[in-house]
Amino acid sequence: MDRTKHIGGSDIGSVVNAPPYGCARKLWYQKRGIEPDYAIEFKGHLIRGTKLEPLIVQEYCEKTGNDVRRRKTIQGQREYEIGQPDRIILNDPRGPGILETKSANERSFRKFQKEGLPLSYQLQIQWYMGHAGYRWGAFAILEPSNWRFDHFEVTFDAQAFDLVREMVAQFWAMAQGEGEPDRLPVSDKRCQSCEWRHSCQGVALLEAVDADDTDAEIPALADLAQEYLQLRDVRDEAEEAMESVKEEATRLLQDRAGATAPGFRVLYKPQTSMRVDSKALKTKFPDVYEAVVKPSVSRPFRVFPA
After folding, report:
1. Does the residue 11 lie in any domain?
2. What domain range includes position 97?
3. What CATH number is attached to the domain comprising 21?
4. From residue 276, how far is each of 42, 271, 280, 284, 306 by CA, in Å?
5. Residue 171: exposed, middle, or buried by beta-carbon count in 10 A (0-12, 13-18, 19+)?
6. pLDDT under 70 in the chain at which residues?
């Protein structure tokens, strides 16, 4: 199916610029058929989701007792409005519902359980429910590394659906040549890895990362830079997951300095350290401050997509 001819559920998050990945301008480039400046990145998580979809569906059916089936593309009233839900839920007293399957890493799974589903997911299923005429739907989410599963039900929101349809109509007009979406701020992280970042932001993106200091070209750095960014993402995900675990653990500890668990001792003691208040020292004893302060030189290693 030619994705330039329609707006589907997976496009809705970009239409509304929903963080952390949605961008209306990037979607505009795609729908206009404009070639990207850089090769489309390998989206391993999309392949993972497709491969795991049957297993996630099976988990959902086993956990809920519901039956599901596939459904052909849902056609909206306007020619460009379509929906391709993963499954239709059957044998529920509320009538048929939409089932969307998602796979998630540990960080995202914990975040979903703690904060709820992201806006892009919620609007995607509203898009499907509205065009199908269904009153409810559900997300089935699997974290495959530890095989943790959860599901979340959603009720149809007519107001949200109408608002999304209006925003889609405005976007579609732009995709047909009537204007173009606004750019995101050049500082937005979404711009740094966008395949159209040069066409969209031009020299502004280069100026934001001190491009004048990168006049030498060393081709051998390309693979290392790519690997560095991938490892940084893994590190960031691990740190966020650790912080989420820490928050949950400290909630259980409350004001206790520590506790035991089978096979573990967990400490949460307050610690006091003495530090120099540089601001107060500079204000009260400027001569002393000037005598002891010294320049600190560092060379931070940073990588930005060009």
Report:
1. yes
2. 3-182
3. 3.90.320.10
4. 49, 16, 9, 13, 41
5. buried
6. 1, 41-46, 203, 205-215, 305-306
